[in-house]
Amino acid sequence: MEKTVTEAIAYRRSCRIYKDEPINTEKVKQCLYNASLAPTSSNLQLWEFYHVTNKNTIQDLAKACFDQNAAKTAQQLVVVVARKDLWRKRAKANLEYIDKAYGKDNLSDRDKKRKAMVSKYYKKGIPFVYSDFLGILGILKYVIFQIVGFFRPIYRQVRQSDMRIVAHKSAGLAAQNFMISMAAIGYDTCPMEGSDTLRVKKILGIPHRAEINMIIGCGIRDDKGIYGSRFRIPFEETYTQVQ
């Protein structure tokens, strides 16, 4: 029986040793589909998921992950990739969807305005924010926006480094969807940042401009794989209610 969201969150731990017991590939794939439903900046979905089930490839990736137990003992691996470089393609896909969704001739005035506004956003707003040349345009936009910000609220994260962060935040949200989905069906995961990302890209044939967000070990937990009880900073230190 699947766990509730709260139960799945409580169950999820970073498991570093897995049982030598196969897990269902199709169930993991469904959890990755759940990942693709995560919230994402401007609906650009600047992510990709590499679902690794081949044992030899898992061994190669484990070496690139510095032979961490969470990779060596994993039954499967998922590599979450941030694809900021695909913003043009994903913006075009959104425009095509908008044209299809609002393709009727007898649109209401409200829908006409909505279509025009959203189309303008993807045709002009997204290219303005994401376009750059050697980081120069990003710096110029940053300076201009900071000046405008003295007079009115304005979006300020327009440098190339800022847009990388945006892409990685969205990829991280997708990864969390995946791990909670896995926990809900009794499967375990461990997100790993420690890896030789260049080697990971070569092993999987990932394009140079793509960026590894994290590698997630997947399997069924061995009792030795959970390193102690969960520790969290007291909630009161991290929570502020603004009334």
Describe the model.
With 243 residues, the chain is an alpha+beta fold. Helices cover 49% and strands 11% of the residues. It starts with a helix and ends in a 5-residue tail after the last helix. A 4-stranded antiparallel sheet has the order 1-2-4-3, sandwiched between helices. It has a domain at 5-84 and 171-228: NADH Oxidase. The model has no long low-confidence stretch (mean pLDDT 95). The longest helix is centred in the last third of the chain and has 25 residues, at 160-184.
Give the arrangement of secondary structure elements.
Layout: H1 5-11, H2 25-35, E1 47-52, H3 55-64, H4 69-72, E2 76-82, H5 87-101, H6 109-130, H7 136-148, H8 160-184, E3 188-192, H9 197-204, E4 211-219, H10 235-238
Antiparallel strand pairs: 1-2, 2-4, 3-4
Estimate the mean pLDDT confidence. 95
Task: Name the CATH superfamily classification of the domain at 5-84 and 171-228.
Answer: NADH Oxidase
CATH class of the domain at 5-84 and 171-228: Alpha Beta
**CATH 2nd-level architecture of the domain at 5-84 and 171-228:** 3-Layer(aba) Sandwich
Instruction: Enumerate the strands of the largest sheet in spatial order, edge to edge or round the barrel.
Output: 1-2-4-3
Residue share in helices? 40-55%
Q: What's the total number of strands?
A: 4
Overall form: globular
- Strand proportion, as a percent range, falls in 5-15%
CATH fold node name of the domain at 5-84 and 171-228 = NADH Oxidase
How far apart the termini lie comes to 40 Å
Report the sheet with the most strands, covering strand number, pairing sense and barrel closure: 4 strands, antiparallel
Determine the structural class based on helices, strands and strand pairing: alpha+beta
